[in-house]
Amino acid sequence: MFETGEGARSVVVPLSSGDPALLTPIAGGAVHCAQGQAMGTDWRLRVVLTDPERIVAARETMARALDRVIAEMSQWEPDSEISRFNRLGAGERMVVSRGFAQVMDCALTIARISDGAFDPTLGAVSDAWGFGPSASPLQAPERVSAGPGWQALALDASTRTLLQPGDLMLDLSGIAKGFAVDLASMLLTEAGFAHHLVEIGGELRASGVRPDHQPWWGDVEPAPDALHEASRIALTGWSIATSGDWHRRRGGNGARDWSHTLSPAACAPVADGPRAATVLHPGCMQADALATVLMVKGVKDGIVFADTHGIAAHMTGPDGTGHASAAWRKML
Predict the structure, then answer these.
(1) Fewer C-beta neighbours within 10 Å, C or N terminus of the chain?
(2) Residue 2's beta-bridge partner residues?
(3) Could you list the residue range(s) of the whole structural domain that residue 86 is in?
(4) 104-159 residue pLDDT tens
(5) CATH (domain of 120)
(6) What are residue 156's DSSP bridge partners?
(7) Name one GO molecular function term (predicted).
């Protein structure tokens, strides 16, 4: 949900995060690009190289990250870790990969601090409303049950063992994409591509700087009919994620359509809520999940939540007005 063109007016410049050595540009480097599709969306890579042929290796590194996350967390892959866990019977346990355990630990932490506004156990709800592997309904389902809920999940971090309480379906769509961005960035840095900007479906993470000493800039895609200025953000060492109500809608056939953001309390899409929520965070996985939290909580409670936890966030209300947390305002 981001663009990197001209036109943004409100400039957000956080202090650089990460290795200070990455603030020095690569001598003789130039920006090269690669792009593709994965996880049901588009991805783009911008990377500084002195040898243009190295873009092939950078692209392969991106592909490894994406393939790994799909194998672990895609509900559309019957042999993925998440699909196998969702098929377990009550009381059965499963040893999961390090990446899966890392995402689950983060998801459960954010579920706790948000009082369940983020819930990774809405797989059945998501599927019923048309955002899972099953065919999308043309009309709203009458009643959907979420199952036992996130409180029933038990993750043993020391053994990476996850307990299936029974009739629980995980859905990590609200956090897996952000994790994929973080993973791709980490693998790129390890492979020698330390100066880069990774985008997967609008979630971004940047490392290092451009050859002209400038940070990597990301322009937040504004909600339709937004009454506030769009934002341009310096992303050196930072990640950003936006959740909006105008993408990935379902329904139709003469009936009102609905947003992909689900209310765990109602087991239904959020109705008449914020148009968008953007979160700036060192980790894209965290930014991804926290943006969902704000959409579920609404503008008033969302900004209070962001201020309580020191989160840099901006929200667009149902009426198109802009609302920023204290941490966001300090970066303007």
Answers:
(1) C
(2) 220
(3) 81-133+143-163
(4) 999 999 999 999 999 999 998 888 877 788 777 767 777 788 788 999 999 999 99
(5) 1.10.3980.10
(6) 161
(7) metal ion binding
